[in-house]
Structure formats: structure tokens, C-alpha cells
Amino acid sequence: MSTRPRRPARPYRRPKKDPVRLIAYEALRAVDERDAYANLVLPPLLRGARERGDIDGRDAALATELVYGTLRRQGTYDAIVAECVDRPLREVDPPVLDVLSLGAHQLLGTRIPAHAAVSTTVELARVVLGDGRARFVNAVLRKVAADDLDGWLEKVAPPYQEDPEEHLGIVHAHPRWIVSALWDALGGGREGIEALLEADNARPEVTLVARPGRATAEELLTPDAVPGRWSPYAVRLAEGGEPGAIDAVREGRAGVQDEGSQLVALALANAPLEGGDRRWLDGCAGPGGKAALLGALAAGRGASLLAAEKQPHRARLVARALRGNPGPYQVVTADGTRPPWRPGSFDRVLVDVPCSGLGALRRRPEARWRRRPEDLAGFAPLQRGLLTEALRAARPGGVVGYATCSPHPAETRAVVDDVLRHESAELIDARPTLPGVPSLGDGPDIQLWPHLHGTDAMYLALLRRT
Question: Which three-class secondary structure state does DSSP give residue 228?
Fold first, then answer.
């Protein structure tokens, strides 16, 4: 009996470590395991890799796109991957699911060729998961690669006519309840909500603020920077622009601040006021961006600013942002719901209250999958308490600005209306305080939108103490 000679076994090949995809995977795991925010965990990972010489600028840009793109479209990719596995997604180990999502984004959300997207992701799986689970990743991603994103959306999203909110949620990668909440706040038909959801998925620009009396917007202009749309102190950086390369930013005379936040501070400063204008208060000052702008504006009028922040580490950030302010200021660690200052002490008061952050989903894409409808009820007592004490801090005739980075009615008008039923105050029209800014709503309060203004969805109501 003849026997064929055995084919020699293929030698084992160690998987190659791709620093870009390893960084992306580590960031996704931190977001998943520790409820971390990508904008906090990714920069140290990139900085460490640069210092080791593992990556360059282009690699860092790719790692950033992989992390933020995967997080933005997590729900969409989950729906697609669910069609390609033989078990419920909840039974897939979270590390495996993170690798699959990373691969799905490369296949469906980038220009990386399909063969490269699959091979690099499988290689990553071999490094972080082992060869056995890497074979599972390979099989699933080959199924994902069988169609493009539009083709998959036709399969996994219900028709718009049958279920508009679920259709928009899967197509634009937002949980259904957030689609519903944003649509209620925005009003109008399909065109407007789709524009808003698309803006949430766009990479936000980096916007700088020139702090009055210390820097000018003209000083910040470079070949990679253009003036802001609405704020006279705003400058927008081109993609890839590095704020730290600008002298005024390094020296603290300018900072990174969304233009919507600048407009909130400007509206409070521009509000008409009868009587003295000597004492200003920022009752929720951390991390310090609005306080720094308010402090500079106050100094230009000979007024002083008291910046209060409950958390000590955030109060230190406020102090750092205000360092070098041209006018008098003080930073205190204090709870705005139990304030140490006397009632009726201030002419202008700002409270930018803690909230769900639904207005900043383009900057914190993981928040859309982390938040739940019941979270809104948890913020409500704090928001009402802060606004109540802010009104009591203002003198009769003084102005209070209630701001929040959320367009949800439960965090905006519902809070203001409820507090007004118990406090001696009246709403004033905030729209004239921002001349030249269009589409501010029906008033008297203001709602900014990413798709209309290029800002976070900041809300502002101005109230006068009576």
C-alpha cells in the first residue's frame, strides 16, 4: 500500500502589530469597559505612540478617524454585523464586537480597500484575541464586505414610510429615542431632521477664541485658519490644524472653544441692563472656557468676575483658563445649589448647567449610545436648583443666562418655565443680543443647531430678576 508523502506543515507566522489599529482598539475598549470618553483617552495613546516613534501625523489622523467613525456609527454597524453572525450580538464577547465594528467601519465608512480592511482587522484580531477568534472575525467581515453601506442599509433599516424614526436612527446612526427627541425640538419635516443627524455625524471643526484684551482674532489667522461665522472672537482651523502650534494658544491668550459657547457668553454680556454693571458670576464655570471669555469681557467694562465650580479639579482648570485675565476675578470651589455668596449680589449671572450633552454628539459620539431617556429625569432637579439659585444671586434688574448643551425640551424650556412659576423673574428676548446670527427660533429663548450654525446645539434663555 502506497502512502503519499505528507505536505510539510506551514510554519506558524506571528501576527504583525499595527500600531494604528492597536491604538484604535485600545481606545474603543476604554470607552466600552470604563465608560471613558474618546476625546480623553485617545490623545494620551497617540502622544505615547508618537514619543515611541511608532506613528507619524498621518497615522494619528487615521487612528482618530477609525475611533470616532466607529463610535459614531456603532448602532448601524451593530445592525449589519447582527445579520452576519449566527447568534445574538449580546452573546458576542465585547472585545470581539469592538474588533468587528472597527473592521466594519473600514469596510463601509472609509476608502480603505476591502481586502486591506479585512486583512488588517484579522491581523489585529490575532494580536488581541488569538487565532481562534480571529478566524471568526475573518468569516464575519467577509460577509460584511459582500455589500456596500447603501446596500446594507436597504437590508437592515425599515422603510421610512413604515417607521420614520427607526429608519432615520439606523441610516444616520442615532438611537431611536434621540431621533424622536431631536425631531420634537427641531420641528418640521424629514429634510430638517436628516440635515441635523448628518451634521451630528460630521467631523467638527476646531474653533479658537481670542480672549478680548489679550489677543485678537486677526492674530490667530494663518493659512490654515479662517474667521468664525458669528463670533467676532472666533477663528476656525482647517482639518489637521494644530491649536498648540499657535503662540496665543500656548500662552493662554486664546483657547479652543466651540463658537456656540462663545455666543452664549456674548449674549449674556450684550443683554440690556439697567443700573450698575460691576459684578458678574459664572455659577458653573468648569472647565473654564466661558469663564475666560466672560472674564475678559467683564474686564473691558471695568467689572469683576466670580467663577464658581463645585469640583476641585475642574476649579483648577478654571483658574488656569483665567490666569492672566486683564481685570479682577476670583475662582472659588462652591456648589451653585448651595452658594456661599449673598443673594442679590450680581448684575450678570451665567449658569451653563450639567446636562445629557445631546447637543454635542458630534464631539462625543459615544454619548449617543450611552445615554438613556431616564437620564433626563436625573438631571432635572440639579438644573432647576442651579437656575433658582442663579436668579436669587442676581440683583433686581439683573440678568441671568440659563444655558445647556442640549436641545431636549426637558432640559431647556421645561426647566425655565418651571422655575419661573416660583421665582420673581421674566424672560427677555435673547435674539437681539446676537445680531447677524440667523435661525435662532421663535424666541424669546435661543436654540443653536449644528446644521444651521455649525455649532453645538446650545440653548440659552435670558431672564431678568424682577
Answer: coil
